[in-house]
Amino acid sequence: MKPLFTRILSFFLAVFILFSTSSFSVDMHFCCNELVDMAFFGKAESCKGIVNIKDNTSKQCNSMQEKECCDNQTLLKQGDDTFKKSNTILENETLVFINTFFYTYINLFEGLDRNVISFQTYRPPLLSLDIIILNETFLI
């Protein structure tokens, strides 16, 4: 469970760093307060068709082809690449600790020259009484 959680967490942190450092733009074209075209990373296309310009002094939209009613909006998300880089100064105690840690870690997986059995010469004591019968505990 722990390795799976670690992989999921590291994936989401990598995606978070990717999206926080990247920048993108969204360009939208509105006609009569309706979204006509939307483009990511480019320019949205304007209204297509015949342009009918009418004498309209109130600036209200009557048809989709009027150019006075069209509006372009751009949303821009700037990336943030001002990360603080860590400056690690290794001191003598830190170097000794790192050296000792790696030495013991590498020697942890080295095999022994021969297979040592610590209880090979051990002889169990002689029992004068049978403890199973005294306690009346029998396997059924």
Architecture overview:
With 140 residues, the protein is of the alpha+beta class. It is built from 3 helices and 3 strands. Strands 2-1-3 form a 3-stranded antiparallel β-sheet, with no helix packed on it. The longest helix is centred in the first third of the chain and has 20 residues, at 2-21. The model is unreliable at 49-59 (pLDDT under 50).
Topology:
Blueprint: H1 2-21, E1 24-31, E2 34-40, E3 70-77, H2 92-108, H3 131-135
Antiparallel strand pairs: 1-2, 1-3
Largest sheet at a glance? 3 strands, antiparallel
How big is the Rg? 39 Å
Instruction: Please mark out the parts with pLDDT under 50 across 5 or more consecutive residues, or reply none.
Output: 49-59
The count of DSSP E runs of length 2 or more, i.e. the number of strands, is: 3
The end-to-end span amounts to 40 Å
Side-by-side strand order of the widest sheet: 2-1-3
Mean pLDDT: 78
Shape: elongated
Query: With helices defined by DSSP (H or I, 4 residues minimum), what is the helix count?
Result: 3
Structural class comes to: alpha+beta
What is the H/E order?
Answer: HEEEHH
Can you describe this structure in just a few lines?
With about 140 residues, the protein is α+β, with helices and mostly antiparallel strands. It is built from three helices and three strands; from the N terminus they run αβββαα.
